[in-house]
Amino acid sequence: MRYSILAERFGTHETRRLIDTTSGAQVLIARRGATLLRWDAVLAGELRTISDGHQTPAELESQSGMRFGLMAPFSNRIADARYHFDGEEFDLQPGVAADKRGIRHGFVRHADFDIIEESVTERQASLKLSTRILRPEVFAGYPFAIDVSVTISLRGNGVEYSIEAINVGDRAAPYGCGLHPYFRLSDAGIETLALQIPARRLVLTDANLIPLPDEAAYAALAGHPELDFRKASAIDGRIIDQAYIDLEMEQDGRLRTRLFDPASGSCLVVSQTRGLLHAFTADTVARGRRAALALEPVELPTNAFNREDCRVAARLEPGKTRRFDCGFELING
To answer: What does DSSP assign to residue 80?
Structure first.
Protein backbone atom coordinates (compact mmCIF):
# COMPACT_ATOMS: atom_id res chain seq x y z
CA MET A 1 0.00 0.00 0.00
CA ARG A 2 1.42 3.38 -0.98
CA TYR A 3 0.08 5.24 2.08
CA SER A 4 0.30 4.48 5.78
CA ILE A 5 -0.75 5.98 9.13
CA LEU A 6 1.32 5.83 12.32
CA ALA A 7 0.15 6.52 15.87
CA GLU A 8 2.57 8.79 17.74
CA ARG A 9 2.67 11.32 20.59
CA PHE A 10 3.55 15.00 20.81
CA GLY A 11 4.29 15.41 24.48
CA THR A 12 1.11 14.16 26.13
CA HIS A 13 -0.93 14.68 22.96
CA GLU A 14 -2.00 11.80 20.76
CA THR A 15 -1.15 12.28 17.09
CA ARG A 16 -1.35 10.50 13.75
CA ARG A 17 1.26 10.71 11.00
CA LEU A 18 -0.05 10.25 7.44
CA ILE A 19 2.73 9.13 5.10
CA ASP A 20 3.16 8.72 1.36
CA THR A 21 5.67 5.87 1.46
CA THR A 22 6.64 6.43 -2.17
CA SER A 23 7.63 10.11 -2.01
CA GLY A 24 8.04 10.55 1.75
CA ALA A 25 5.48 13.39 1.89
CA GLN A 26 3.67 13.41 5.22
CA VAL A 27 1.50 15.29 7.68
CA LEU A 28 1.43 15.10 11.47
CA ILE A 29 -1.95 15.79 13.08
CA ALA A 30 -2.78 16.20 16.77
CA ARG A 31 -6.13 15.33 18.32
CA ARG A 32 -5.98 18.68 20.15
CA GLY A 33 -7.97 20.97 17.88
CA ALA A 34 -7.51 18.54 14.96
CA THR A 35 -4.37 20.60 14.45
CA LEU A 36 -1.84 19.95 11.71
CA LEU A 37 1.56 20.18 13.38
CA ARG A 38 3.78 19.55 10.38
CA TRP A 39 3.50 19.11 6.63
CA ASP A 40 6.48 17.85 4.65
CA ALA A 41 6.20 17.96 0.86
CA VAL A 42 8.58 17.15 -1.98
CA LEU A 43 10.51 20.11 -3.36
CA ALA A 44 13.11 19.59 -6.07
CA GLY A 45 13.33 15.91 -5.22
CA GLU A 46 13.84 16.46 -1.49
CA LEU A 47 11.51 16.63 1.49
CA ARG A 48 10.87 20.15 2.75
CA THR A 49 8.77 21.30 5.71
CA ILE A 50 6.29 23.77 4.21
CA SER A 51 4.19 24.33 7.30
CA ASP A 52 5.05 26.64 10.19
CA GLY A 53 3.06 24.89 12.87
CA HIS A 54 3.25 24.61 16.64
CA GLN A 55 6.77 23.50 17.51
CA THR A 56 6.19 22.43 21.13
CA PRO A 57 3.32 20.93 23.12
CA ALA A 58 3.15 24.19 25.08
CA GLU A 59 2.55 26.14 21.85
CA LEU A 60 -0.19 23.72 20.87
CA GLU A 61 -1.88 23.98 24.25
CA SER A 62 -1.81 27.78 24.27
CA GLN A 63 -2.71 27.96 20.56
CA SER A 64 -0.04 30.63 20.25
CA GLY A 65 -0.44 32.18 16.82
CA MET A 66 -3.34 29.83 16.02
CA ARG A 67 -1.04 27.82 13.76
CA PHE A 68 -3.11 25.53 11.50
CA GLY A 69 -5.99 25.92 13.92
CA LEU A 70 -9.50 24.87 12.95
CA MET A 71 -11.83 27.83 13.53
CA ALA A 72 -15.43 27.02 14.54
CA PRO A 73 -18.18 27.98 15.23
CA PHE A 74 -16.79 31.33 14.05
CA SER A 75 -13.56 32.53 12.49
CA ASN A 76 -11.49 35.53 13.50
CA ARG A 77 -13.27 38.11 15.67
CA ILE A 78 -16.72 38.84 17.08
CA ALA A 79 -17.07 42.58 17.78
CA ASP A 80 -17.00 43.27 21.52
CA ALA A 81 -17.58 39.51 22.00
CA ARG A 82 -21.33 40.12 21.59
CA TYR A 83 -23.75 39.25 18.81
CA HIS A 84 -27.43 39.16 17.95
CA PHE A 85 -29.25 36.10 16.62
CA ASP A 86 -32.99 35.51 16.17
CA GLY A 87 -33.83 38.59 18.21
CA GLU A 88 -31.60 37.70 21.18
CA GLU A 89 -28.34 39.24 22.31
CA PHE A 90 -25.55 36.88 23.34
CA ASP A 91 -22.42 37.71 25.34
CA LEU A 92 -19.40 35.47 24.82
CA GLN A 93 -17.50 37.09 27.70
CA PRO A 94 -19.99 37.93 30.45
CA GLY A 95 -18.55 40.03 33.24
CA VAL A 96 -15.40 40.94 31.32
CA ALA A 97 -14.50 44.64 31.40
CA ALA A 98 -14.73 46.62 28.17
CA ASP A 99 -10.97 47.15 27.87
CA LYS A 100 -10.29 43.42 28.21
CA ARG A 101 -12.96 42.08 25.88
CA GLY A 102 -11.88 40.22 22.79
CA ILE A 103 -12.58 36.79 21.42
CA ARG A 104 -11.46 35.13 18.22
CA HIS A 105 -11.18 31.91 16.25
CA GLY A 106 -13.99 29.95 17.92
CA PHE A 107 -13.82 27.20 20.54
CA VAL A 108 -12.98 23.84 18.96
CA ARG A 109 -9.24 24.55 18.72
CA HIS A 110 -9.02 23.70 22.44
CA ALA A 111 -10.93 20.41 22.16
CA ASP A 112 -9.38 16.95 22.01
CA PHE A 113 -11.12 15.56 18.95
CA ASP A 114 -12.09 11.90 18.78
CA ILE A 115 -10.53 9.86 15.98
CA ILE A 116 -13.48 8.42 14.08
CA GLU A 117 -11.81 6.76 11.13
CA GLU A 118 -8.38 6.07 9.65
CA SER A 119 -8.13 4.91 6.05
CA VAL A 120 -5.38 4.24 3.53
CA THR A 121 -5.62 3.47 -0.16
CA GLU A 122 -3.29 3.65 -3.13
CA ARG A 123 -4.60 7.18 -3.67
CA GLN A 124 -4.50 8.80 -0.23
CA ALA A 125 -4.34 8.52 3.55
CA SER A 126 -7.24 10.05 5.48
CA LEU A 127 -8.00 10.79 9.09
CA LYS A 128 -11.49 11.74 10.29
CA LEU A 129 -11.81 13.50 13.66
CA SER A 130 -14.90 14.77 15.44
CA THR A 131 -15.92 16.77 18.50
CA ARG A 132 -19.19 17.32 20.37
CA ILE A 133 -17.81 20.08 22.53
CA LEU A 134 -20.25 22.67 21.13
CA ARG A 135 -23.15 22.13 23.52
CA PRO A 136 -25.44 24.47 25.50
CA GLU A 137 -23.95 25.60 28.83
CA VAL A 138 -20.38 24.71 27.80
CA PHE A 139 -19.43 28.09 26.33
CA ALA A 140 -20.92 31.33 27.58
CA GLY A 141 -22.96 33.05 24.90
CA TYR A 142 -23.20 30.03 22.60
CA PRO A 143 -26.16 27.88 23.74
CA PHE A 144 -26.23 25.70 20.62
CA ALA A 145 -25.51 22.04 19.85
CA ILE A 146 -23.21 21.47 16.87
CA ASP A 147 -21.20 18.37 15.99
CA VAL A 148 -18.04 19.32 14.09
CA SER A 149 -15.99 16.80 12.14
CA VAL A 150 -13.00 17.20 9.87
CA THR A 151 -11.46 14.78 7.42
CA ILE A 152 -7.81 15.50 6.61
CA SER A 153 -6.30 13.69 3.65
CA LEU A 154 -2.74 13.45 2.37
CA ARG A 155 -2.78 13.03 -1.38
CA GLY A 156 0.54 13.24 -3.20
CA ASN A 157 2.09 16.64 -2.55
CA GLY A 158 -1.12 18.11 -1.15
CA VAL A 159 -3.43 18.08 1.86
CA GLU A 160 -7.23 18.29 1.70
CA TYR A 161 -9.67 19.30 4.44
CA SER A 162 -13.39 18.60 4.56
CA ILE A 163 -15.00 20.34 7.54
CA GLU A 164 -18.58 19.34 8.36
CA ALA A 165 -21.01 20.77 10.90
CA ILE A 166 -24.32 19.19 11.93
CA ASN A 167 -26.87 21.07 14.02
CA VAL A 168 -27.98 18.38 16.47
CA GLY A 169 -29.99 20.81 18.59
CA ASP A 170 -33.62 21.88 18.42
CA ARG A 171 -33.00 25.49 17.41
CA ALA A 172 -31.22 27.29 14.58
CA ALA A 173 -27.61 28.22 15.33
CA PRO A 174 -25.08 30.75 13.99
CA TYR A 175 -22.10 28.96 12.53
CA GLY A 176 -19.09 29.51 10.28
CA CYS A 177 -15.70 27.84 10.03
CA GLY A 178 -12.25 28.31 8.61
CA LEU A 179 -8.64 27.21 8.74
CA HIS A 180 -5.62 29.21 9.95
CA PRO A 181 -2.50 27.72 8.29
CA TYR A 182 0.97 29.27 8.08
CA PHE A 183 3.26 28.45 5.16
CA ARG A 184 7.01 28.81 4.91
CA LEU A 185 8.40 28.54 1.39
CA SER A 186 11.75 30.24 2.00
CA ASP A 187 14.19 30.38 4.89
CA ALA A 188 14.74 34.02 3.94
CA GLY A 189 11.25 34.99 5.09
CA ILE A 190 8.29 36.17 3.07
CA GLU A 191 9.61 39.36 1.46
CA THR A 192 10.88 37.72 -1.74
CA LEU A 193 7.78 35.57 -2.22
CA ALA A 194 5.13 36.57 -4.76
CA LEU A 195 1.46 36.39 -3.87
CA GLN A 196 -1.54 36.06 -6.18
CA ILE A 197 -5.09 36.41 -4.82
CA PRO A 198 -7.67 36.51 -7.65
CA ALA A 199 -10.23 38.55 -5.70
CA ARG A 200 -12.44 41.34 -6.99
CA ARG A 201 -12.90 43.11 -3.65
CA LEU A 202 -11.37 43.37 -0.21
CA VAL A 203 -12.92 43.86 3.23
CA LEU A 204 -12.35 47.22 4.92
CA THR A 205 -12.07 47.20 8.71
CA ASP A 206 -11.85 49.56 11.66
CA ALA A 207 -8.88 49.85 14.03
CA ASN A 208 -9.98 46.64 15.79
CA LEU A 209 -10.04 44.69 12.50
CA ILE A 210 -13.84 44.54 12.53
CA PRO A 211 -15.38 45.01 9.05
CA LEU A 212 -17.14 48.32 8.49
CA PRO A 213 -20.97 48.28 8.52
CA ASP A 214 -22.99 46.98 5.59
CA GLU A 215 -21.71 47.74 2.07
CA ALA A 216 -19.06 50.14 3.43
CA ALA A 217 -17.07 47.01 4.28
CA TYR A 218 -16.44 46.09 0.65
CA ALA A 219 -14.13 47.95 -1.69
CA ALA A 220 -12.80 47.33 -5.18
CA LEU A 221 -9.14 46.38 -5.24
CA ALA A 222 -8.42 48.99 -7.88
CA GLY A 223 -8.64 51.65 -5.17
CA HIS A 224 -6.12 49.91 -2.90
CA PRO A 225 -3.01 49.15 -4.96
CA GLU A 226 -0.92 48.32 -1.87
CA LEU A 227 -3.23 45.35 -1.21
CA ASP A 228 -3.88 44.36 -4.82
CA PHE A 229 -2.48 40.92 -5.63
CA ARG A 230 -4.70 40.08 -8.58
CA LYS A 231 -1.48 39.80 -10.54
CA ALA A 232 1.29 37.96 -8.72
CA SER A 233 3.58 40.47 -7.04
CA ALA A 234 6.28 40.40 -4.38
CA ILE A 235 5.18 40.85 -0.78
CA ASP A 236 8.29 42.94 -0.03
CA GLY A 237 7.80 44.92 3.18
CA ARG A 238 4.03 45.15 2.97
CA ILE A 239 2.13 44.50 6.20
CA ILE A 240 -1.01 42.51 5.45
CA ASP A 241 -3.85 41.44 7.74
CA GLN A 242 -6.58 41.47 5.16
CA ALA A 243 -9.62 39.53 3.96
CA TYR A 244 -10.34 39.19 0.24
CA ILE A 245 -13.79 38.46 -1.15
CA ASP A 246 -15.32 37.58 -4.52
CA LEU A 247 -12.49 35.28 -5.51
CA GLU A 248 -12.48 34.11 -9.10
CA MET A 249 -13.77 30.55 -9.51
CA GLU A 250 -11.79 28.20 -11.75
CA GLN A 251 -13.31 25.64 -14.09
CA ASP A 252 -13.38 22.87 -11.49
CA GLY A 253 -15.35 25.01 -9.05
CA ARG A 254 -12.46 25.85 -6.73
CA LEU A 255 -11.10 29.23 -5.67
CA ARG A 256 -7.32 29.31 -5.64
CA THR A 257 -4.71 31.58 -4.07
CA ARG A 258 -1.08 31.10 -5.09
CA LEU A 259 2.22 31.82 -3.37
CA PHE A 260 5.36 31.70 -5.52
CA ASP A 261 9.01 31.30 -4.53
CA PRO A 262 11.12 32.66 -7.42
CA ALA A 263 14.28 31.11 -5.97
CA SER A 264 13.03 27.51 -6.12
CA GLY A 265 10.38 27.91 -8.80
CA SER A 266 7.83 26.33 -6.48
CA CYS A 267 4.22 27.37 -6.08
CA LEU A 268 1.97 26.82 -3.08
CA VAL A 269 -1.71 26.63 -4.01
CA VAL A 270 -4.42 27.19 -1.39
CA SER A 271 -7.86 26.18 -2.63
CA GLN A 272 -11.39 26.36 -1.27
CA THR A 273 -14.93 25.75 -2.45
CA ARG A 274 -16.35 29.14 -1.42
CA GLY A 275 -15.90 32.00 1.01
CA LEU A 276 -13.08 34.46 1.62
CA LEU A 277 -9.30 34.30 1.82
CA HIS A 278 -7.58 36.09 4.70
CA ALA A 279 -3.87 36.87 4.27
CA PHE A 280 -1.68 37.70 7.27
CA THR A 281 2.04 38.48 7.16
CA ALA A 282 2.53 37.38 10.80
CA ASP A 283 3.86 40.69 12.05
CA THR A 284 2.38 40.27 15.53
CA VAL A 285 3.01 36.61 16.34
CA ALA A 286 5.15 35.65 19.33
CA ARG A 287 7.58 33.53 17.31
CA GLY A 288 8.93 33.85 13.79
CA ARG A 289 7.54 37.21 12.76
CA ARG A 290 7.29 37.44 8.97
CA ALA A 291 8.98 34.05 8.66
CA ALA A 292 5.78 32.54 7.31
CA LEU A 293 2.58 33.70 5.65
CA ALA A 294 -0.89 32.79 6.89
CA LEU A 295 -3.34 32.12 4.06
CA GLU A 296 -6.67 31.40 5.70
CA PRO A 297 -9.65 29.99 3.78
CA VAL A 298 -12.83 30.96 5.66
CA GLU A 299 -16.55 30.53 5.03
CA LEU A 300 -17.65 33.93 6.27
CA PRO A 301 -16.18 37.36 7.01
CA THR A 302 -15.05 38.47 10.44
CA ASN A 303 -17.97 39.40 12.76
CA ALA A 304 -20.39 37.50 10.52
CA PHE A 305 -22.81 36.84 13.39
CA ASN A 306 -23.50 40.58 13.59
CA ARG A 307 -23.81 41.25 9.86
CA GLU A 308 -27.15 41.43 8.10
CA ASP A 309 -25.49 40.44 4.82
CA CYS A 310 -24.37 37.19 6.48
CA ARG A 311 -27.67 36.42 8.19
CA VAL A 312 -28.65 33.59 5.83
CA ALA A 313 -25.15 32.18 5.24
CA ALA A 314 -24.36 32.02 8.97
CA ARG A 315 -27.62 30.26 9.88
CA LEU A 316 -27.61 26.49 10.40
CA GLU A 317 -31.06 25.02 10.91
CA PRO A 318 -31.78 22.06 13.23
CA GLY A 319 -30.91 18.74 11.61
CA LYS A 320 -29.03 20.40 8.77
CA THR A 321 -25.44 19.77 7.72
CA ARG A 322 -22.97 22.17 6.16
CA ARG A 323 -19.62 21.32 4.63
CA PHE A 324 -16.61 23.45 3.75
CA ASP A 325 -13.74 22.05 1.71
CA CYS A 326 -10.28 23.56 1.43
CA GLY A 327 -6.72 22.41 0.96
CA PHE A 328 -3.19 23.20 -0.14
CA GLU A 329 -0.65 21.73 -2.53
CA LEU A 330 3.00 22.35 -3.35
CA ILE A 331 3.77 22.39 -7.06
CA ASN A 332 7.36 22.14 -8.21
CA GLY A 333 8.67 24.46 -10.92
So the answer is: G
| H or E element that contains 30 | strand 26-30
Confirm if 157 and 255 have CB atoms less than 8 A apart.
no
Phi, psi of 105 (to 5 degrees): 70, 10
What is the spatial distance between Cα 139 and Cα 158, in angstroms, rounded to a whole number? 34
DSSP letter string over 142-193? Answer: ----EEEEEEEEEETTEEEEEEEEEE-SSS-EE---EEE-EE---TT-STT-
pTM above 0.85, yes or no: yes
Mean pLDDT of 292-317: 97
Does the structural domain 3-331 have CATH classification 3.40.50.150?
Answer: no
Residue-wise pLDDT tens digits, 124-169: 999 999 999 999 999 999 999 999 999 999 999 999 999 999 999 9
Element (H, E) at 199: strand 199-203
